[in-house]
Amino acid sequence: MHLGLIGYGTIAATLAELLAERGPRVDRITVLARTGREDAARDAVAGHAVEVVTEAPGLIAAGPDLVVECAGHAAVSAHVAPVLAAGLDVVLASVGALADAGLHDALLAAAQDGGARLILPAGAVGGTDLLAALAPAGGLEVSYTGTKPPAAWKGTPADTLLDLDALTEPAVVFEGNARSAAEQFPKNANVAATLALAGAGFEATKARLVADPAAPGNIHAYEVVSPVARYSMRIENVASGNARTSLATVYSLRREIANRAGPLAV
Ligand SMILES: NC(=O)C1=CN([C@@H]2O[C@H](COP(=O)(O)OP(=O)(O)OC[C@H]3O[C@@H](n4cnc5c(N)ncnc54)[C@H](OP(=O)(O)O)[C@@H]3O)[C@@H](O)[C@H]2O)C=CC1
Ligand SMILES: O=C([O-])CC(=O)C(=O)O
Asked: Which of 93, 186, 226, 237 has a C-alpha 20 to 30 A away from that of 246?
């Protein structure tokens, strides 16, 4: 497989290591990096045969079999539409970028034009297969709570709301719908967006974000009520090298790559 990566931070570097250790075999990686950050991109995936490009046309020309975005909302907005329009499938980690309705529609139109697929991985959450399966039955009620240690909320609006370093008990930093959560907390509410897109939509999906000094990791909990099934889920994630990012996200992206590599998709 020839893998395309947009992003060369914690997820990209951990994914590159995981692929080297556990497969599936990746023969070549092309990384789309910001100009001036080529060496950082090369270092992130060291151990693989790597080419670094700085614009979407370079990534398209390289012709990867699959592109994985793990760079953030701004990068989705800057690069993903042309990549899809060129016919390359994209696995999107920064799902919350789709809370921007204009970008959501533009990416779907680009995918349609290019005959490509925009793939939303489960990421740090689980059970999105069942949620997406239940959605056509209608009547879905989805309530999500994301709890992370104070360090994960640094540099977010929670920082101005609370003295994060002085927290001694859990504090709600956001309560509203999944669209507002994803817009206000772009690095902390991709899970809320994933649940919204799989299930009841951005407006109908309730989201609560909590800073908890006693949190053992990043906890994603949600409840689903539907006429077909009811379930609840609580996932206690180990953080990656980035306090905001759960390690399970990397494994979820690897799963998408393994499913593409075949012969069995699970
Ligand atoms: N779906 C899910 O469950 C999850 C999704 N995520 C998403 O994944 C993203 C990445 O996470 P993580 O690896 O931990 O974050 P990091 O901050 O460690 O890495 C982000 C990387 O993206 C690069 N980048 C930023 N902007 C651009 C751009 N315009 N073009 C190319 N590269 C760019 C950064 O480069 P530079 O160093 O030059 O700034 C950096 O290499 C998060 O922002 C979040 O949106 C994260 C966790 C879970
Ligand atoms: O939802 C997000 O943006 C990321 C997240 O919570 C996690 O990795 O646990």
From this structure: 226
